[in-house]
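Forwarding these from the shared drive since the link keeps breaking.
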Amino acid sequence: MTQSDAARRQAIEGLYRDAGQFVFRRCLRMLRNNEEAMDVTQWCFVRAWESGFEPRSLEQSLAWLYRTAGRRCLTLLRDEGNRRRIRREHATELRRGWSPSHEGRVIERELLLRALQNADEAAAEVAMLHYFQGLSMKRVVEVTGMSTATAYRAKSRYSELLRRIASSEPPDMRAIRS
Protein backbone atom coordinates (compact mmCIF):
# COMPACT_ATOMS: atom_id res chain seq x y z
CA MET A 1 0.00 0.00 0.00
CA THR A 2 1.43 3.35 -1.01
CA GLN A 3 1.50 6.34 1.25
CA SER A 4 -1.38 8.00 -0.67
CA ASP A 5 -3.44 4.78 -0.36
CA ALA A 6 -2.80 4.74 3.39
CA ALA A 7 -3.87 8.39 3.69
CA ARG A 8 -7.01 7.77 1.62
CA ARG A 9 -7.84 4.68 3.68
CA GLN A 10 -7.41 6.69 6.86
CA ALA A 11 -9.68 9.43 5.45
CA ILE A 12 -12.40 6.89 4.55
CA GLU A 13 -12.13 5.26 7.99
CA GLY A 14 -12.57 8.71 9.55
CA LEU A 15 -15.55 9.33 7.30
CA TYR A 16 -17.04 6.01 8.44
CA ARG A 17 -16.66 7.06 12.09
CA ASP A 18 -18.21 10.48 11.38
CA ALA A 19 -20.95 9.54 8.89
CA GLY A 20 -21.54 5.80 9.22
CA GLN A 21 -24.42 6.17 11.66
CA PHE A 22 -26.18 8.66 9.34
CA VAL A 23 -25.91 6.33 6.35
CA PHE A 24 -27.06 3.39 8.49
CA ARG A 25 -30.13 5.29 9.75
CA ARG A 26 -31.00 6.29 6.18
CA CYS A 27 -30.71 2.67 5.02
CA LEU A 28 -32.69 1.44 8.01
CA ARG A 29 -35.55 3.83 7.23
CA MET A 30 -35.64 2.55 3.67
CA LEU A 31 -35.14 -1.18 4.26
CA ARG A 32 -36.64 -1.60 7.75
CA ASN A 33 -34.13 -4.37 8.48
CA ASN A 34 -31.05 -3.89 10.69
CA GLU A 35 -28.86 -6.51 9.00
CA GLU A 36 -29.62 -5.29 5.47
CA ALA A 37 -29.11 -1.68 6.52
CA MET A 38 -25.72 -2.50 8.05
CA ASP A 39 -24.74 -4.49 4.94
CA VAL A 40 -25.60 -1.57 2.67
CA THR A 41 -23.79 0.89 4.95
CA GLN A 42 -20.63 -1.18 4.88
CA TRP A 43 -21.01 -1.78 1.15
CA CYS A 44 -21.11 2.01 0.60
CA PHE A 45 -17.79 2.55 2.33
CA VAL A 46 -16.20 -0.39 0.50
CA ARG A 47 -17.57 1.13 -2.71
CA ALA A 48 -16.03 4.47 -1.74
CA TRP A 49 -12.64 2.79 -1.39
CA GLU A 50 -12.93 0.75 -4.60
CA SER A 51 -14.15 3.68 -6.71
CA GLY A 52 -11.33 5.97 -5.58
CA PHE A 53 -13.69 8.32 -3.76
CA GLU A 54 -11.80 11.16 -2.11
CA PRO A 55 -13.58 12.35 1.07
CA ARG A 56 -14.21 16.08 1.00
CA SER A 57 -16.28 18.01 3.48
CA LEU A 58 -18.69 15.98 5.58
CA GLU A 59 -21.67 17.53 3.78
CA GLN A 60 -20.34 16.69 0.28
CA SER A 61 -19.31 13.21 1.37
CA LEU A 62 -22.73 12.57 2.90
CA ALA A 63 -24.43 13.59 -0.34
CA TRP A 64 -22.35 11.00 -2.24
CA LEU A 65 -22.91 8.35 0.44
CA TYR A 66 -26.68 9.00 0.59
CA ARG A 67 -26.94 8.76 -3.20
CA THR A 68 -24.93 5.53 -3.24
CA ALA A 69 -26.85 4.02 -0.31
CA GLY A 70 -30.21 5.06 -1.76
CA ARG A 71 -29.47 3.39 -5.08
CA ARG A 72 -28.30 0.22 -3.34
CA CYS A 73 -31.40 0.15 -1.12
CA LEU A 74 -33.58 0.71 -4.15
CA THR A 75 -31.95 -2.27 -5.84
CA LEU A 76 -32.64 -4.41 -2.79
CA LEU A 77 -36.25 -3.22 -2.59
CA ARG A 78 -36.74 -4.10 -6.24
CA ASP A 79 -35.46 -7.59 -5.60
CA GLU A 80 -38.30 -10.13 -5.72
CA GLY A 81 -37.22 -11.88 -2.54
CA ASN A 82 -37.45 -8.66 -0.58
CA ARG A 83 -40.83 -7.84 -2.07
CA ARG A 84 -42.06 -11.24 -0.87
CA ARG A 85 -40.59 -10.56 2.58
CA ILE A 86 -42.33 -7.18 2.72
CA ARG A 87 -45.65 -8.78 1.77
CA ARG A 88 -45.21 -11.45 4.46
CA GLU A 89 -44.46 -8.80 7.08
CA HIS A 90 -47.56 -6.85 6.16
CA ALA A 91 -49.71 -9.99 6.10
CA THR A 92 -48.66 -10.74 9.69
CA GLU A 93 -49.54 -7.21 10.76
CA LEU A 94 -52.94 -7.49 9.10
CA ARG A 95 -53.72 -10.79 10.85
CA ARG A 96 -52.89 -9.28 14.27
CA GLY A 97 -55.18 -6.31 13.97
CA TRP A 98 -57.06 -5.58 10.77
CA SER A 99 -58.31 -2.09 10.17
CA PRO A 100 -59.28 -0.38 6.91
CA SER A 101 -56.75 2.40 7.46
CA HIS A 102 -53.95 -0.10 8.10
CA GLU A 103 -54.91 -2.12 5.03
CA GLY A 104 -55.03 1.09 3.04
CA ARG A 105 -51.44 1.88 4.06
CA VAL A 106 -50.34 -1.61 3.03
CA ILE A 107 -52.06 -1.27 -0.34
CA GLU A 108 -50.57 2.19 -0.80
CA ARG A 109 -47.08 0.83 -0.04
CA GLU A 110 -47.62 -2.00 -2.55
CA LEU A 111 -48.64 0.55 -5.18
CA LEU A 112 -45.57 2.65 -4.41
CA LEU A 113 -43.33 -0.41 -4.74
CA ARG A 114 -44.98 -1.46 -8.02
CA ALA A 115 -44.44 2.04 -9.38
CA LEU A 116 -40.78 1.91 -8.26
CA GLN A 117 -40.33 -1.34 -10.12
CA ASN A 118 -41.47 0.32 -13.36
CA ALA A 119 -39.87 3.75 -12.89
CA ASP A 120 -36.69 4.94 -14.54
CA GLU A 121 -33.66 5.33 -12.26
CA ALA A 122 -33.96 9.10 -11.72
CA ALA A 123 -37.69 8.94 -10.97
CA ALA A 124 -37.17 6.00 -8.60
CA GLU A 125 -34.36 7.79 -6.76
CA VAL A 126 -36.43 10.95 -6.31
CA ALA A 127 -39.45 8.87 -5.21
CA MET A 128 -37.40 7.00 -2.61
CA LEU A 129 -36.03 10.19 -1.13
CA HIS A 130 -39.23 12.24 -1.31
CA TYR A 131 -42.08 9.76 -0.72
CA PHE A 132 -40.40 7.01 1.34
CA GLN A 133 -37.93 9.07 3.35
CA GLY A 134 -39.95 12.26 3.50
CA LEU A 135 -37.24 14.63 2.28
CA SER A 136 -38.32 17.97 0.88
CA MET A 137 -37.76 18.45 -2.84
CA LYS A 138 -35.12 21.07 -1.99
CA ARG A 139 -33.21 18.46 0.03
CA VAL A 140 -33.73 15.85 -2.73
CA VAL A 141 -32.03 18.24 -5.17
CA GLU A 142 -29.10 18.69 -2.77
CA VAL A 143 -28.67 14.97 -2.08
CA THR A 144 -28.99 13.76 -5.68
CA GLY A 145 -27.06 16.56 -7.33
CA MET A 146 -29.85 16.89 -9.92
CA SER A 147 -31.01 20.25 -11.13
CA THR A 148 -34.28 21.43 -9.61
CA ALA A 149 -36.09 21.05 -12.94
CA THR A 150 -34.76 17.51 -13.45
CA ALA A 151 -35.78 16.45 -9.94
CA TYR A 152 -39.31 17.85 -10.36
CA ARG A 153 -39.66 16.19 -13.78
CA ALA A 154 -38.57 12.88 -12.24
CA LYS A 155 -41.11 13.34 -9.42
CA SER A 156 -43.79 14.11 -11.99
CA ARG A 157 -42.94 10.97 -14.02
CA TYR A 158 -43.18 8.85 -10.88
CA SER A 159 -46.47 10.48 -9.83
CA GLU A 160 -47.94 9.85 -13.28
CA LEU A 161 -46.81 6.23 -13.19
CA LEU A 162 -48.35 5.88 -9.73
CA ARG A 163 -51.65 7.38 -10.98
CA ARG A 164 -51.72 4.93 -13.92
CA ILE A 165 -51.09 1.95 -11.65
CA ALA A 166 -53.66 3.12 -9.08
CA SER A 167 -56.30 3.68 -11.76
CA SER A 168 -55.77 0.16 -13.09
CA GLU A 169 -56.56 -1.32 -9.64
CA PRO A 170 -60.01 -2.85 -9.08
CA PRO A 171 -62.59 -0.32 -7.76
CA ASP A 172 -62.76 -1.90 -4.28
CA MET A 173 -58.99 -1.40 -3.82
CA ARG A 174 -59.28 2.28 -4.77
CA ALA A 175 -62.08 2.69 -2.19
CA ILE A 176 -59.90 1.24 0.57
CA ARG A 177 -57.06 3.64 -0.26
CA SER A 178 -59.22 6.78 -0.07
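-- next protein --
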Amino acid sequence: MPQYMLLMIQPVEGPPKENWAEQSKQWNQFHQDLVDSGVLVANYGLAGADAATTVRVREGETQITDGPFAETKELLAGVVLVDVPDLDAALAYAAKVPSVSYGAVEVRPLWGG
Protein backbone atom coordinates (compact mmCIF):
# COMPACT_ATOMS: atom_id res chain seq x y z
CA MET A 1 0.00 0.00 0.00
CA PRO A 2 1.15 3.55 -0.61
CA GLN A 3 2.37 5.65 2.28
CA TYR A 4 1.36 9.27 2.81
CA MET A 5 2.79 11.87 5.15
CA LEU A 6 0.26 14.08 6.89
CA LEU A 7 2.12 17.31 7.67
CA MET A 8 0.36 19.18 10.46
CA ILE A 9 0.62 22.95 10.04
CA GLN A 10 -0.40 25.28 12.84
CA PRO A 11 -0.26 29.00 13.62
CA VAL A 12 3.05 30.22 15.06
CA GLU A 13 1.33 31.02 18.36
CA GLY A 14 0.35 27.36 18.65
CA PRO A 15 -2.98 25.71 19.34
CA PRO A 16 -5.78 27.54 21.12
CA LYS A 17 -5.16 27.56 24.87
CA GLU A 18 -8.76 26.90 25.85
CA ASN A 19 -9.99 23.33 26.20
CA TRP A 20 -6.54 21.70 26.60
CA ALA A 21 -8.14 18.64 28.19
CA GLU A 22 -10.56 18.23 25.28
CA GLN A 23 -7.78 18.70 22.70
CA SER A 24 -5.65 16.08 24.45
CA LYS A 25 -8.60 13.68 24.42
CA GLN A 26 -9.11 14.30 20.67
CA TRP A 27 -5.42 13.66 19.92
CA ASN A 28 -5.43 10.45 21.94
CA GLN A 29 -8.56 9.26 20.13
CA PHE A 30 -7.12 10.17 16.71
CA HIS A 31 -3.93 8.22 17.49
CA GLN A 32 -5.92 5.21 18.73
CA ASP A 33 -8.13 5.28 15.61
CA LEU A 34 -5.01 5.11 13.43
CA VAL A 35 -3.64 2.21 15.49
CA ASP A 36 -6.96 0.35 15.49
CA SER A 37 -7.34 0.72 11.71
CA GLY A 38 -3.82 -0.61 11.15
CA VAL A 39 -2.65 2.35 9.06
CA LEU A 40 -0.30 4.08 11.51
CA VAL A 41 3.40 3.89 10.62
CA ALA A 42 4.62 6.84 12.75
CA ASN A 43 3.18 9.82 14.62
CA TYR A 44 5.42 12.59 15.94
CA GLY A 45 5.02 16.15 17.10
CA LEU A 46 7.88 18.56 16.53
CA ALA A 47 9.59 20.92 18.94
CA GLY A 48 8.90 24.60 18.30
CA ALA A 49 10.70 26.68 15.70
CA ASP A 50 12.88 28.16 18.43
CA ALA A 51 14.52 24.72 18.73
CA ALA A 52 15.23 24.50 14.98
CA THR A 53 18.62 24.67 13.33
CA THR A 54 18.86 25.28 9.58
CA VAL A 55 21.78 23.90 7.52
CA ARG A 56 22.69 25.18 4.06
CA VAL A 57 25.71 24.56 1.86
CA ARG A 58 26.57 27.44 -0.45
CA GLU A 59 29.59 27.36 -2.74
CA GLY A 60 30.99 24.45 -0.72
CA GLU A 61 30.65 26.23 2.63
CA THR A 62 28.34 24.87 5.31
CA GLN A 63 26.22 27.54 6.99
CA ILE A 64 24.38 26.77 10.22
CA THR A 65 21.69 29.12 11.49
CA ASP A 66 19.57 28.91 14.61
CA GLY A 67 15.85 28.91 13.93
CA PRO A 68 13.74 28.28 10.85
CA PHE A 69 14.68 29.46 7.39
CA ALA A 70 11.82 31.85 6.75
CA GLU A 71 9.53 34.03 8.77
CA THR A 72 6.02 32.74 8.47
CA LYS A 73 2.63 32.81 10.15
CA GLU A 74 2.40 29.00 10.18
CA LEU A 75 4.87 26.29 11.12
CA LEU A 76 5.21 22.55 10.66
CA ALA A 77 4.08 21.18 14.02
CA GLY A 78 4.15 17.42 13.51
CA VAL A 79 3.96 14.52 11.12
CA VAL A 80 1.88 11.38 10.81
CA LEU A 81 2.89 8.63 8.40
CA VAL A 82 0.05 6.38 7.27
CA ASP A 83 -0.01 3.31 5.06
CA VAL A 84 -3.34 3.46 3.21
CA PRO A 85 -4.79 2.22 -0.08
CA ASP A 86 -4.90 5.58 -1.86
CA LEU A 87 -4.91 9.36 -1.67
CA ASP A 88 -8.62 9.47 -0.85
CA ALA A 89 -8.02 7.40 2.28
CA ALA A 90 -5.09 9.65 3.28
CA LEU A 91 -7.28 12.72 2.80
CA ALA A 92 -9.99 11.20 4.96
CA TYR A 93 -7.49 10.72 7.81
CA ALA A 94 -6.13 14.24 7.28
CA ALA A 95 -9.63 15.63 7.79
CA LYS A 96 -9.71 13.89 11.21
CA VAL A 97 -6.48 15.46 12.52
CA PRO A 98 -7.63 17.44 15.58
CA SER A 99 -5.61 20.56 14.67
CA VAL A 100 -7.19 20.86 11.22
CA SER A 101 -9.88 23.11 12.73
CA TYR A 102 -7.34 25.88 13.48
CA GLY A 103 -4.42 24.88 11.23
CA ALA A 104 -4.01 22.79 8.10
CA VAL A 105 -2.82 19.34 7.06
CA GLU A 106 -0.71 18.94 3.96
CA VAL A 107 -0.83 15.44 2.48
CA ARG A 108 2.09 14.14 0.42
CA PRO A 109 2.80 10.70 -1.00
CA LEU A 110 6.16 9.18 -0.14
CA TRP A 111 8.41 7.89 -2.86
CA GLY A 112 11.75 6.12 -2.89
CA GLY A 113 12.87 4.09 0.05
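Helices lie at 20-37, 87-94. Strands lie at 3-11, 40-45, 53-58, 61-66, 74-83, 104-109.

- D.
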